[in-house]
Amino acid sequence: MSTALxxxxxxxxxxxxxxxxxxxxxxxxxxxxxxxxxxxGAGKSTLAKAVAGLVPxxxxxxxxxxxxxxxxxxxLLARAGLGFVPQTENVFAPLTVAENLELAAAVAHVKAKQRxxxxxxxxxxxxxxxxxxxxxxxxxxxxxxxxxxxLVPNPRVLILDEPSAGLSPKLVEHAFxxxxxxxxxxxxVLLVEQNVKAALAIAARGAVLVEGRVxxxxxxxxxxxxxxxxRLFFPHAEAAAP
Amino acid sequence: xxxxxxxxxxxxxxxxxxxxxxxxxxxxxxxxxxFAHGEFIAWGAYLALTFLxxxxxxxxxxxxxxxxxxxxxxxxLAALVAGAIATALLALVLDWxxxxxxxxxxxxxxxxxxxxxxxxxxxxxxxFVYGSLPAYYTRELQIAIHIVPRDVGGGLRATPDQxxxxxxxxxxVVGLHLFLQRTTAGRAMRAVAHNPALARVTGIDxxxxxxxxxxxxxxxxxxxxxxxxxxxxxxxQIGFDLLLPLFAAAILxxxxxxxxxxxxxxxxxxxxxxxxxxIGAEYRAAAAFGVLIAILxxxxxxxxxxxxx
Amino acid sequence: xxELLPVLSYATFFLVFASIFATMALGLNLQWGYTGLFxxxxxxxxxxxxxxxxxxxxxxxxxxxxxxxxxxGLPIVVGWIGGTAAAGLVAAAVGFAALRLRHDxxxxxxxxxxxxxxLVALNAQKLTGGPFGIQFIPKPFDSELDGSLxxxxxxxxxxxxxxxxxxxxxxxxxxxxxxxxLRAIREDETAAEALGKRAFAFRLQSxxxxxxxxxxxxxxxxxxxxxxxxEDFLPILTFQxxxxxxxxxxxxxxxxxxxxxxxxxxxxIAGNGLRELIPPADQARAASLQIVLVGVLLAAMLLWxxxxxxxxxxxxxxxxxxxx
Lengths: 242, 309, 324
Prior knowledge:
The complex is a heterotrimer of chains A (242), B (309) and C (324).
Chain A: E1 3-12, E2 21-29, E3 33-37, H1 44-52, E4 57-64, E5 67-68, H2 74-80, E6 82-85, H3 97-107, H4 112-122, H5 124-128, H6 139-151, E7 157-161, H7 169-184, E8 188-192, H8 196-202, E9 205-210, E10 213-219, H9 220-223, H10 228-233, H11 235-240
Parallel strand pairs in A: 3-8, 3-9, 6-7, 7-8
Antiparallel strand pairs in A: 1-2, 1-4, 4-5, 9-10
Helix pairs in contact in A: 3-6
Chain B: H1 2-30, H2 37-58, H3 74-105, H4 108-130, E1 145-148, E2 156-158, H5 160-182, H6 184-194, H7 196-202, H8 206-231, H9 238-253, H10 258-279, H11 286-298
Antiparallel strand pairs in B: 1-2
Chain C: H1 4-34, H2 42-57, H3 76-98, H4 103-123, H5 125-128, H6 149-175, H7 177-187, H8 189-195, H9 197-225, H10 235-248, H11 253-277, H12 283-304
Helix pairs in contact in C: 1-6, 1-9, 1-10, 1-11, 2-3, 2-4, 2-9, 3-4, 3-9, 6-7, 7-8, 7-9, 8-9, 10-11, 10-12, 11-12
C-alpha cells in the first residue's frame, strides 16, 4: 500500500500567529479510510481545510503522493487529485445536478461524457435527479452530489468534513457504505467526523486530534473499546481525576 | 402618447439594463456595490469617441458615410468595439490597483468606499481630459419613422438609431444569457457568485473568473455608454447620472440575476419615461429613486434573486 | 500690522471652514465610525440643514421677478435648530427604509436621497431659488462687520464653540451605555442579531443623530457664507467629508477633527498650487484635477493606512469569519 497523503508537523490557522492546527502529523494509504476524531474546537475542520488549500498553512509539509502541496492554491489541488467535500453548502444550488458535475469535469479537463455515467452508476439517485436544481435536492441526495462532485476528477485522496451532519441514521449508513465502496476502488479517504461510532465502523484507523495535534493514531477496533475515546478526547480531565 | 412613452422607456431601459447587468455581476461575485461602475459607462462612451476620430482619420478624414438609414458609419461600430476593449482594460487596471488589494485585507464596505473615491477620481479625470462641453458622435440628423400611425394609442415614432440600440441590446442580453447558462465559463461565474470557497475546491480558478467578470461588466458598460451617447449626447456626468437607475434596476431584479437586471432596467426605464408627463422632465431622475425605495420597502431581495442555498 | 491683516483674515476664514467640516465629519463618525453605517449622501443631509435654516431665517425674494416666494425671517437660532431637526428627520426616513437590509443597500439609498435633494434644490425654484440658490441669508453679529476680519474671528469663535459642544456630546454618548451597545452591534454580528429589533432602533437613532449633526454643519455654513446654491452640495462634498474621516481615523472623534483640518489644508493647497501651475484658460480643468488628487489620497489611505492617523487599531480584523 502506497502512501497517498502524508501530513507532517502541520501548522495552520486563519490569522497569522494564531495557529489552530499545531504540528499535526498523519498518513493515509491508498484505499484506506482514516477517521479524524476529536473534541469540538480541536481543529479537525481547520486541518481538513488547510490540506484542501482553503486555510493558510504556516509551516509543515503536506504530500499528495510524491508531490509537496502545502500552500498550493485550492483550485490547483482539486485538479491535481485532492477532492474536498465541505460540511455545509457543498453543492452549487442554482445549477442542476448535471451542471454541477459537468462544471467540475470541464475545469479538471475530464471528459464528462465518460465520467458522469460512471458516477451515476455509483449514485443511482443522482441519475434520476440530473435535471433538478441542486438547491431542491433532499439532504441525503445533496450529500451524494457533493461526494460525486469531488470524485469527478478521479482524485487520489478524498477529504470529507462531517458528511454525516444533519443526516438521519439511515442516510448516514447509506452514505458511509458508499464511502467504503469508493475507498475500495483505491481512493484514500480522510473522514472528519463527530459521529465517532459510524466513522470507526468503516475506518481502518482513527486519529484523535486534541488542541491541534494528533495525539493518538490507532487501529479503529482499538478505539471502539468503551471509554477509550472519552479519555483521549479529554486528557486533562483524566489527569485531574483521582 | 402611451405607446410613445413605452417605446421611449424601453430605449432608455435597454441602456440601463446593459449597465445593470455588469453591476449585478460584479456585485454578486465580488460582494460589494461598485460606485465606479457608472464611470466605466462614461469612459466607454468617451473612449469610443476618441477611437471614432481615429477611425475616421484612418478612412481619409472628412465626414462618416452613414450606413443605410442610420446616422453613423462602420467607423462607429469599430469604435464601439475598440472603446469596449479599452474600458475592459481600465476595469482590470482598477481591480489590480485597488479592489484586488483591498479585498485581500478588508471588508466589503471598505471596497464600496474605495469605489466611491475611484468614481469621483475617474469622473473628474475624464472631465480633465475631455472638458465638460457636450459632445456628439455624429451631427447627422435622424428622421423618426412612424412605426404605429397616430390614431392607434397615440402613435409611435422612433429613429433608426434608437431601433439599432434596442436590437443590439437584445442580441447582447440573449447572448449573455446563453453564455451564462450553457458555457463552462458562464457556469463557473455563477458558481463563484454562489459560493467562492466551493468553487475553489471544485477546481475553478476564482481569480480568473473575477477578471473575466470585470471584463464582461466593463464591455457591457462601455456599450451602454456608447448607446447613451448615440441616442443623446456625451457629457462627463453620463455615468454618474445612470448610477442610481443602475442600482435601482439591479436591486429590483435581484442582485446576481442577469434576467432580473434586464427586466429591472426596462422597468426603471419605463418608470422614468412615465414620470415625465406626471412630475415633469426635471424630476425624471427621481423616478429611479422611487422605484428603489419601493423595492427596498416591499421586496428587498428583488424580483428574481438566484435561489439561495 | 497692515501686511498681517490679509493673512489673519485668510487664516480665520480657513479655520471657520475647517471647523464646519469637522462638525460634519463628527456626524459621519457617529454613523460610520461608531455604528458601521455607510452614508454616501452626506452632501444631501448637509444641504437639508443649510436650506432649512436659510428658509427659516431669510425673507422671500422681494420686488418684481422674485423667484423664491418662501421664507420666514425668523432668528438665526431658530434656523439652526430647524436645520438640524430637518436633516435628522430626513435621515430617520431614509434609515427606516434601508437600515433593516444589507449594509450596502443603505449606501445606495443614501446616494439616491442626495441625488433627489439635489434635484429639488435645482428645480423647486419657488422654494429653493433653483440654480440661483438663496441669497442674503442673515449673518449673526452686526451687519457692518460683514466680510471683515472681526466677523471671521467672531464666527470662528462660534463654530469652534459649536464644534466643542458636538464633540463633548458625542464623547459622552460614546462612553454611555448607548454608545457601548452601538460598538457591540458594529463589532459583533451575533450581538446585533441577538438584539434584533432593538439593534434596528439603535442604528436608526445613531443614523438620525449623525444626519442631524451634518445638517447643523450645513446651517453653520449657510450663515457664514450668506449664500447657498445647489452646486455647494455636490457629491464632492460627501467625498471630502469621507476622506477627512478616513484620513483622521474612523472611530475616533479627535481623528475626525484632525482629519478635517488636514484634508481641508491639502485641498486648499492643492487647489492653489494647481491654479498657479495651470494656465488661466484651463482653470475649470484644474478643479477636476484637484478632485482626482484627493481621490487618490483616499484610495492610498485605505490601502496603506486603513486606520487613519488617529483611528483605533481594532477594527481591521473584526469582520473575519470564525473557524468552524
